[in-house]
Write a structure and sequence with these properties.
Blueprint: E1 11-13, H1 29-44, E2 48-51, H2 60-73, E3 77-78, H3 84-93, H4 97-115, E4 121-123, E5 126-128, H5 130-145
Helix pairs in contact: 2-3, 4-5
């Protein structure tokens, strides 16, 4: 994979056109496998997976639906091919106030646990471990970069 051969690469973008089959509205199973493989490769090499373009820039609802599908998979952004899509992408990918608050609580709870010599902690009845911390820290960093964390 190209992600392994060059250090200046920061993100990898999917190209939707080649993943679609004529007449289908959603990415077919083989296309989904490719999208997931790209996502896993990005994570393995520390890269940011960015979802490809949505061609119908007059269809705001379609863009938002496509962006939400990609976000659920783990993509960190969506390529906007028209200025009208920028705010739509920001709506989907900017962490909400509730998400930022939860991430801060996770980081705080884990800091307290670390002081007590623990490697994991329970918060709101759920186990929080190092993976949860990394996800919370990444969300907080993204929120700061997008101006969503005050």
């Amino acid at each position: 994979m190209i992600a392994a051969v060059s250090t200046p690469i920061m993100s990898v973008l999917t190209g939707q056109g080649r993943l679609r089959q004529p007449g289908l509205l959603l990415v077919p199973i083989n296309g989904m496998r490719r999208r997931l493989a790209l996502l896993v490769a990005c994570r393995a090499y520390g890269l940011r997976p960015i979802d490809g373009p949505f061609g119908d820039f007059g269809d705001s609802d379609g863009f938002i639906a496509a962006a939400k599908r990609a976000a659920v998979l783990g993509y960190e952004g969506k390529w906007a091919i028209h200025p009208s899509q920028i705010e739509l992408a920001n709506q989907v990918y900017t962490p909400s106030e509730a998400e930022v608050t939860k991430a801060r609580r996770i980081v705080s709870a884990m800091a307290d646990a670390a002081k007590a010599g623990k490697g994991a902690v329970s918060l709101d009845g759920r186990l929080i471990d190092i993976a949860g911390i990394r996800m919370a820290e990444a969300l907080l960093k993204k929120a700061v970069a997008m101006g969503a964390a005050a």
